[in-house]
Amino acid sequence: MALKKKPVTGMKDILPKEMEIRNYVTSMIRETYASFGFTSIETPCVEHIENLCSKQGGDNEKLIFKILKRGEKLKLEEAKEEADLVDSGLRYDLTVPLSRYYSNNANDLPAPFKALQMGYVWRADRPQRGRFRQFMQCDIDILGEPTYMAEIELVLATTTLLGKLDFHNFTIRINDRRILKAMAEYSGFPKESFDTVFITLDKMDKIGLDGVAEELSAEGFAKESIDTYLGMFKEITSDIQGVRYCKEKLKDVLDPKIAEDLETIISTVEAVKTADFKMAFDPTLVRGMSYYTGPIFEISMDEFGGSVGGGGRYDEMIGKFTGNNTSACGFSIGFERIVMLLLERGYEVPGGKGKKAYLIEKNMPADKLTEIFRQASEERKAGTQVNISIMKKNKKFQKDQMTAEGYTEFVEFFKDRM
């Protein structure tokens, strides 16, 4: 039986053109985030199954690639439930591993700690445009900073990066989980039903206000609560005035400082930003992870038609490891979607070094071949990329292929002349 040449479903092979862009984006990420004081770290791709299934990852916990126990620990004939077979899994994001990392190493880290982490994650999701089962994630997190300084720094660092990658007119949508809860409480929904309400609200961009009303009604919620709830969304604007509306409307159920801090984040970022984007208050923004405790944000781009990044504050996750809550906030860009958009627009990596091809006639004498390699070494020392190849019969086709790879100069070597 022939072996399968296509990648596993949801995975992909990366061709040289894409790899060039991926490497460039990676270098820009490290350079830009380092300028904001973020330090690179790395965590294992395999995590304890207890950590991954700790009811913090929302629906992602249903998508874990689980790993069987190994060797003598794997006792198939005695297994009665999954826990008898599985003790670890591939990470589905970088936030849970970071929290474990910080809990284990906090004594050796500065406070606050600004972490940059890049690495592959895995989710047994349904593949579609810009979504894979194995994909690169890129997170920046600030641990140990309880104030809105963290949110401001994260948004500015992320948007500065996107600006350097030539993205314009995108939107940072921002909300606060505590405003979400206050709106639901003000409307009279039972607290134990908030998650159900938010799951439905999260569909607003797809089904609209009327669709949300229908689904909430089908869930059995009171018409008065639904009308009060959705009526507020009609009144709230997407700017600072919308935040102020929430502060006044929800004053009996919302600490005013929450709205004031959100207003400060928006106004400060708008005042000092260096990239071409806008901040938008979006009270319908939910984000699926249950670990978020405060401000949450997403990056929306019209050319993608959806989110290309997101994050928020998760002040209670590290406490699940240590018993003591630690302030934490993070922002993740959709690395794969960013690369896909750059490829689709025909993006060329700027300032690349010269690429030259040496085409050598077959059976070149050893002394001449030595001289060719010596010449190539000198050019490489000077910063030129030199590719040495045997000259093919169809030389035009060979040059066309290499031109498509970015080679702009060709030098031909023949046995009877150099």
Description:
The chain has about 425 residues and is α/β, with parallel strands linked by helices. It has 14 helices and 14 strands. The protein has helices spanning about 15-35, 50, 95-105, 150-165, 175-185, 195-200, 205-220, 225-235, 240-250, 255-270, 320, 335-345, 365-380, 395-405, and strands at about 40, 45-50, 65-70, 85-90, 115-120, 135-145, 170-175, 275-280, 295-300, 305-315, 330-335, 355-360, 385-390, 410-415. Strands 1-5-6-11-10-9-7-8 form an 8-stranded mixed sheet, sandwiched between helices. A 3-stranded antiparallel sheet has the order 2-4-3. A 3-stranded parallel sheet has the order 13-12-14, with helices on one face. Helix 13 links the parallel strand 12 (about 355-360) and strand 13. The longest helix is centred in the first third of the chain and has 20 residues, at about 15-35. The mean pLDDT is about 90.
Nutshell version of this structure?
This protein has 418 residues and is of the alpha/beta class. It is 39% helix and 20% strand. It is built from 14 helices and 14 strands.
Class by SSE composition? alpha/beta
End-to-end gap: 49 Å
The strands making up the biggest β-sheet line up spatially as: 1-5-6-11-10-9-7-8
Given the structure, what is the number of helices? 14
Strand content: 15-25%
Order of helices and strands: HEEHEEHEEHEHHHHHHEEEHEHEHEHE
Assign an overall shape: globular
Query: If you compute it from the alpha carbons, what radius of gyration comes out, rounded to the nearest whole angstrom?
Result: 27 Å
Largest sheet: 8 strands, mixed
Outline the low-pLDDT stretches: none
The counted number of beta strands is 14
